[in-house]
What does this fold into?
Amino acid sequence: MESGCWTDAGKAAALNGSATLPFVIPSKAEGSAVLRTRLGNSTSDPGTTAPASPYLAMRGITMSALRQNLTYSFRRLSRAPGFVFAVVLSIGLGIAANSTIFSMVSRFVLRPAPVGDPATLMALHTTHDGDRCCNSFSWPLYTDVRDQNHSFSGVAAYFELVPASIGGSGEPERVWGQSATSNFFDVSQIRMYLGRGFLPSEEHVPVIVLSHRLWQRRFGSDPFILGKSIPVSGHTYTVVGVAPPGFRGLDLILDPEFWVPLGNVEQLAPSVPSRTARGFHWIVAVGRLKPGVTQSQASAELATLAQRFAKTYPDSDKGGGFRMELAGSLPPRDRSTMLLFITALSVVVLLVLGIACANVANLLLAQSASRQREMAVRIALGATRVQLLRQMLVESLMLALGGGFFGALLTLWATSALSAFRVPAPVPLDTTVSIDWRVLLYTFVLSVGTGLLFGFGPAWIASRPILASALKGEDGLVRPGRRLTLRNVLVVAQIVMSLVLLCATGLFLRSLEQAVNIDVGFRSRDVLMLSVDPRVHGYTPERTTQFLEQLRERVAAIPGVVSVAATDSAPLSGGNRSDGFQSKSTGSYQSVELYMATPGYFETMGIPRLAGRDFAHEAPNCTKVAVVNRAFAEHFFPRENPIGQRVVGGGVTYEIIGVAENIKSRTLGEETRYVLFRSLAQSTASDPAFLGYQLVVHFQGSSSTIAGAVRTQIHNLDPAMAVYNAETMQEHLRRALFLPRLAGTLFGIFGFIGLVLAAIGLYGVMSYGVSRRTREIGIRIALGAQLSAVHRLILRQGMVLTVIAMVLGLPAAFALAGVLSSFLYGIRPHDTLTFTLVPIFLAVVSLIACWIPARRATRIDPQSALRYE
It folds into this structure.
């Protein structure tokens, strides 16, 4: 390039953005001519360049031009690390929040079953009276479908959860597995990690397939495990296979660790219904579609079979039907709750993304304002609007991809943190959330979409400055007479979304506070619980009662033990049964929670007895006795003394011998339930505790010391007895608070992110406003304006935006609160305290965000300001 002249290469480089314009100066004559051509006699928007759109902005890009755009963008962004950090952080936080929730969607909604050809493996459900799904089959119904259908190449069945105690080296361990038909692994098309599945001849043979995880943990990844015999609940089973890594059965969240043939289920779960009982639904069925058979064809055949069975077995199958869907999908009975929870979280994270994107758009607008002169010079030198748009969109995409990469790293950390949470449930659940290709694709698309959508607006505005103003150093993006700017609109949107998010956060934190303070009705400290299950070791009900009584006597003698009792299920564990009892006063049936208990239970649990007596050593063949809670007595016997009265539930007659105070039975937020405590000594073979029995110990001193002593006494009575679920009552109640704590934590994190982004956005706009008004403020101060007046001027501008946002945001927050009402404990969705404190808190944060730029404005030196630019 010659001095003072443009070469063709120099012009091309300047127009494409590969040269740094301040160091390339055209000759005076050429520059003046170009400027006269571009500006004419007007200072208005030239509007003479080619029409621009996202399509035209990307049209006709050569590899050379793209390389120049990328090179220039990288050099330019490297000189603004603070700006890059703010944009990448904003985008990354917004994308991470959304990708984390999408990981949950991918895990619980989109991920196919871990089987061969998941598109043809169908989960079969029974229905009754239309669409009410029972989700299980009776054994006769399963065999009829298996033998009479023509749409499936195979139909398998399994019993969802079987408890067992696995022995061998070390202390016996409580595990859960499944009993499946011999064709289960063939129908599922599972390729074993070691060995094989079941053979057709092994339906009643004691063989076992171990999960990969159990094989590693319990057997040290023994490569010679095949053919070995292992003790399982007092029986000997031969290992024939090890499942592949990651295979946890066909259920979405259940986490079985072994599989045995269904013909042996009675050995491990003696309470399963009889195989001849057509009315008892207890097994899950799956079927593999034949090649060429569609789901609609199979559904039509199942409907025909349902009609046939209704005619053949009217007593049990009348009104029944079938429902079919992909195996491994969310069960119909749980789908609405899960989808509602994920939808609520999705709304929240979309708000976070909206705040982040508004923040990014504001930052890009501010950055564009600082490039007015550059854009004006480019236009004056002949750059088309398409070229300017392309250059700025490339920069936006680079920032968005950087934010997407950062968001993916945050998502990886967040999903690991979520997977560390364990849902409190009496059975093993697999709630692991991880990143898969769907999440990565979603993150990439979201990043690119964010860069294009929120980068195009600032680029469009910056590419059409008022040239005369821009070349003189004035604000070339502000149109004369325009008071409502895009930056102000974006700030208002940020504050609106932040207000909605903070109100939701406040509701969940208030809900958690109420949940922590809820009176559960029993002792919350100095109680230890340990579980045993004599049933899986072949104990009869009589022997189980003897074992528990001997154990109570031994544990009561341990120093530090105040009292001890046994039950089938602790309150708030979700493992108790319920039955319908008929009310004498109304004649209607009411659902009643059922617990088993030994003498001393109410004293140990700290549940006050209001009338009558405690359990004694009742004989199993005598009249069954029960203690009811106060709500039960008031409802069933409103004007009578309940002591001595008899009630019938589940076909069993109970004589009421006592009344106890109300307790929280299933959840902390529930209304008071009707509860009936039965004598554990009077349990029958058909009514065992499904989850085993819990020893409840009221102690003084160290819980770990007491737990060790209790374990010793258990193994002194039976060395093969597995001890599991050992925890204190404080730990138990913390598990019961899982949902409010999880919701409070998630919404608290998202609310904090939204608040920070909104505060940064407001601060950025006010700072930018102060920087653009430096000359004006200097003149005001030079003419005698009070510093306090200048301070109020800046504060007023920011607080007006905040007030507008609150007026718009409160109705939206009220609407979202109504959606979240089903997840709240002890408070109304439109909680007065929350909707009072949150706007005040947000106003204070906004005031601080405005005060800092206002304070800086009062420190402007008038002489420097008058020489500004």
Observations:
- The two ends are 30 Å apart (CA to CA).
